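look at this:
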Amino acid sequence: MAQPILLRVSNFKAYVWDVDDINILRSHHHICGILTGTLPHLSSQNIFLGLPLQLMPEEAVLLVENGIAVLVDDPSAHYAPSPSTLRLWKEARLNDARQQIALTEEKGSIEASNPDRAMSENAKRKRKEREERRARAKTNAAPSVPVEDSPSPHPTSENPSQAAIGEPLDSTVVMPSGSYTVNIPASSSKLEWYAPHSYVSLTVAREAGIWLYPSTLQERARCGVFRDLWEKGYYMGGGIKFGGEYLVYPGDPLRYHSHFVASVIEAPDAALRPMEIVAHGRLGTGTKKAHLLCEWNDETQVVSYLSVEWAGFG
């Protein structure tokens, strides 16, 4: 049996941090979610987002109830690492930086020894200018006053992380000089001081105080409608832009347009004004969709559907 997917909960919101889990949710379980993270070196941050994937509350409830995922109290899963564990982590980061610098130097030596890839005069001029700027920067950064004349009351470390956590200085883990990339894993699962506690049911998570949804009739109705549409094979996304709770897709939203805009009616006796029906019909037709009125019966746990489309007469 496959391991359940970890839904890391923070501030009563469920997130997925593993790319493989996101792929499984989308391809096997028709769960899309919304990417909310930023991607480094990408200019259009409001268009192309990255990890983590934030799930709608209805999606999280469905996954936990079906045994596909478990809830994790993520803020409480991080413990203070021991000095030896932290030292090993720093040494691993140091080795990674050294490997990157060595590969960069090896690449530079290969390019310099390859006559077929000789640089143009313009490239040589720019490289010379960069080297001159580095030399001037080093000259300007050199202290003009002897060290013994201006003693520092508080010794500082070349590694800011050491000073931040108040550890004694350790020259064996000082990061090398040179250009390298600091690799930060998206998931905390690889950290030795990360020990998550899983909640396999909504009842247990509610008792622990990390998850409260659903707690009202409207929230139960949304979960019931979402589950019923999901069991029929549809994909769902947020429908607030189109005047409903969900956009209902016949397949993956990357391949299909939505066919319906779904609105949830929490009870058979809930009031629905004629003006709302007219507005839903006209808005749905204007966006080339049918509006789906989804009525939830909390006693029978059954959903009734009524689609509304604007039709011309005469």
About this structure: The helical segments are 19-29, 57-65, 83-113, 121-141, 160-165, 202-208, 217-231, 274-286. The radius of gyration is 29 Å.
